[in-house]
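Narrative of activities, Objective 1.

The group set out to show that a structural description can be obtained from nothing but a protein's sequence at a throughput compatible with the screening campaign. Below is one input-output pair from the validation batch, recorded exactly as produced.
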Amino acid sequence: MNIALVGYGKMGKAIEEIALQHGHQVVLKITIDNTEDMTIENLQKADVAIEFTGPESAADNLRKCFDAGVPVVCGSTGWLDKWDEIKNICLAKNSAMVYASNYSIGVNLFFELNKYLSKLMKAYETYDVKMEEIHHTQKKDAPSGTAITLAEQILENIQTKKGWVNHPSNNHQELEIISVRTDPAPGIHKIKYTSDIDDIEIIHTAHNRIGFAGGAVKAAEFIKGKKGIFSMKDVLGL
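Output recorded for this entry:
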């Protein structure tokens, strides 16, 4: 399979290493220094594009991939205010996209665990729930896209919480997310239910970027030849 890497930072390089191990070819690498090379002609050399950039460029990059008729795996976060627009363009162009806030297989299992735990806990209002996420200092968005996904899952079930905030809060209706930026830290997400009697806590700790990169390559293998919009739940058959 021929892959275009839109974004060739630390994550892009990790994805390239895994892709080559799987026998794929990287036919295009787009960085901040060669954006002019992201043309329809160059994109069409690829079977799939993998897009890991930032919130300021992700939506435009996705549009270009759809214009080229190339399915895309998107791991950029912080751009979901444009989700409806991008989804409609993808469907109108009869293209395909996998979007996930996190491509780690472990994190996606953690998502399922978080949903199940929040369903159990909704009957026990004596517990309060709070979150913390820790990432490296180069991470541009806070809270992380993964933390937002986890928070939204909790809000679906814990009816006493009306929304999340990214700061300490004494308001019982707010789900507190504390964001910490320190090096080195590929990613830690903590969810803690606290009562006067005890605590219940689940934690996911990433040791490196290999899990994220491997999941992105798995998603690229999944989406080749497909049409529509998919998630890692589809990729993993969860």
